Task: structure prediction
Amino acid sequence: PLNELIKKQEEESLYNVLKASFVGSVFSATSVSITVETLKELGKLNSKLGQTIVSAAIIDDVIGIIALSIVTSLQNGGYDQIWKTILKAIAFFVFAIVIHKKVTILS
Result:
């Protein structure tokens, strides 16, 4: 009975950690559109600083989405699913960089 109680508490604890991680990763995403509108109103959108802020906001959102995907993978499929999610994210970024370079060369 004691072993079963400990196992149940461990499962509940893991569930609570996953639940908290899910909520935290959902709230990590910010609104890029609000950042863009604010910079546009201030007349700073096309400045180097404005572009840096927007780029950082986009990167922050992408990292938040990846974190959300990882937490969701943990909930649904365990550690094997996490590696698949991470590899898909890496493949996407490699693909995006290659396409960006090709488009830049063509322009």
About this structure: The two ends are 70 Å apart (CA to CA). The chain has four helices and no strands. The chain has a mean pLDDT of 84. The helical segments are 2-28, 32-42, 48-76, 79-106.
